[in-house]
Amino acid sequence: MDLATARQQITASFERMRALYFTPVFDEWVILAPGSQQSGILAYTGPRVEEFRKSLPDDVKPLLAQVSGLKLEPGDFEFTHSGDGTRHDVLLKLGVNSYLVCNNTAKSMAEIRADTRWLKAQAAFVDLSEKFRVDPLTV
Predict the structure, then answer these.
(1) Residue 38: pLDDT above 60?
(2) Which of 41, 43, 123, 133 has a 20 to 30 A CA-CA distance from 139?
């Protein structure tokens, strides 16, 4: 899958999640490819355009600590319990060396999960992960 298609798939999936949850589940997402051009940031959507890049290292620390040592394949994902505020909530491996990192800047994953509508919205996220399992992002 190319980057433009990946962005379309992510946007459509998050719109589906919003419709099922009745509010955005994640209001911020980024496609990262460590070691690539653009400081590893291939795409960003969210409310913190100006400060996102400088806060990324701190915001992603809890999630990276959680996945450290795991052998993730495209389509694999991990949610964190430490993703409150601007700290990122979930990481989805998109390709060999690319990842989707998502965040809800107003709610923690515990708050999101407390709403029963999360179960339906979660299914849309799993569908997204399967798209990258079948057709990984190439950058």
Answers:
(1) no
(2) 123
